């Protein structure tokens, strides 16, 4: 897709609303997180 030289060190997560199993809603502000290693 892009050049293999570029390494993504941080992934930006935009603001979103997270729904918990108990019906509670939590607003998660935009932040950076390390990319998930799978």
From TrEMBL:
<protein>
    <submittedName>
        <fullName>Uncharacterized protein</fullName>
    </submittedName>
</protein>
């Amino acid at each position: 897709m892009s050049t293999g030289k570029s390494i993504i060190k941080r992934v930006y997560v935009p603001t979103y609303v997270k729904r918990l199993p108990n019906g509670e809603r939590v607003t998660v502000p935009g932040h950076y997180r390390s990319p998930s290693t799978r």
